[in-house]
Amino acid sequence: MTTLFGRQFSLIVGTPGGPALELGKLRCVFDIRRGDNQTPNSCDVRIYNLSANTANKVASREFTQLAISAGYGTGATATFGKLFQGTIKQWRQGRLDQKDSYVDLTAADGDEAYNFSFMAQTLAKSSTPAAGLLGLIQTMGKSGIKAPTQLPALPNTKYQRGRVFYGMTRDEIREFAAAYGLSWSIQDGVLQFVPLTGFVPGNVPIVSPQSGLVGVPEITQNGLELRTLINPQIRIGSLIKLVSNSVNKLRFSMSAEGQTQSLNSALAAQIKTNADGLYYVMVANHHGDTRGNDWYSELTCLAVDATVTQQTAPGAPLPENAILPISP
After folding, report:
1. Rounded to an integer, what distance in angstroms lies between the CA atom of residue 102 and that of residue 23?
2. Which of 70, 97, 118, 191 has minimal Cβ neighbours within 10 Å of its Cβ?
3. What is the pLDDT of residue 22?
4. pLDDT (tens digit per residue) in 17-60
């Protein structure tokens, strides 16, 4: 049984460096979608029974930014933290009945840079891949995306001829990431790069029935899927330590293709459970109702090679062997 209690929630709408409102004391229903893919993270939130004045402020687009934080408890044992931060893209007003009104907000994280950032840049002969990556980061920065504090290690090879970057910045980053074995995404307005065989270093949250695991994790063709009570410490691209008595196995279909897959050792290796219970977080969707029962994080994860972290104690910081600091 979990020991978590005392829900905490914050919803702030405002403008950068300007006025802001805290709306977390009202009833709010939210649905946050986060992943390590290139598509910007997004969020839908419904706020009930705002005053007419506040609802008009939100509807008039006076506020452009939205931030959601949630968790449990207070003090040293609190798990309260940020779940989402982004730009408000849509608003809708309506009523459920004569008593209850609502305002719906839809927000996205880094979508303007993703959809509109364009670059035209040339690197000189003998430039390194690191110089190319920094050029891509600087171009995204012109659209308001912050540079990562850490970058993956890149080879020290040099371009034999000049390298041209021309077109949508997202397309150039996609091509660069594919060439050097990286995945990339935008997380809370920050560009993030993770090696396909690596992870974001840091503390590893323990996911167990005592820390909020709900139900039994299940292996699917997309990876290991599990549900926990909302935990903002679980971050995209990082690791979790799963402590569970059992994991439901994948059921293949009875078609010829499904039977072939069930015998495919390569597929089995991709979705197997890991001996030490370490998993890479690919997707972390959060949904909740501050006046209802929903208060969950739904994760899709991949098993980590046991040989990489077999000497790491559960809950301890991982060595920074996958991501290196940016060079000055």
Report:
1. 12
2. 97
3. 94
4. 888 999 999 999 999 999 998 899 999 999 999 998 888 888 77
CA nearest to 140, candidates 82, 175, 192: 192
pLDDT at 153 over 60: yes
Full-model pTM: 0.84
Cα 98 from Cα 108, distance rounded (Å): 31
| Secondary structure letter of residue 280 according to DSSP | E
Q: Are residues 181 and 257 in the same domain?
A: no
At residue 101, φ and ψ (nearest 5 deg) are -115, 170
- Please tell me the distance from the alpha carbon of residue 261 to that of residue 258, in angstroms, as a whole number: 5
Helical packing angle, 169-179 and 129-141, nearest 10°: 150
Tally of residues, the chain: 328
Q: Does 2 fall in a domain?
A: no
Range of the domain at 294: 206-325
159: which 2 tokens?
């371009």
Q: Is residue 201 part of a domain?
A: no
User: Which of these three, 145, 171, 195, is where a domain ends?
Assistant: 195
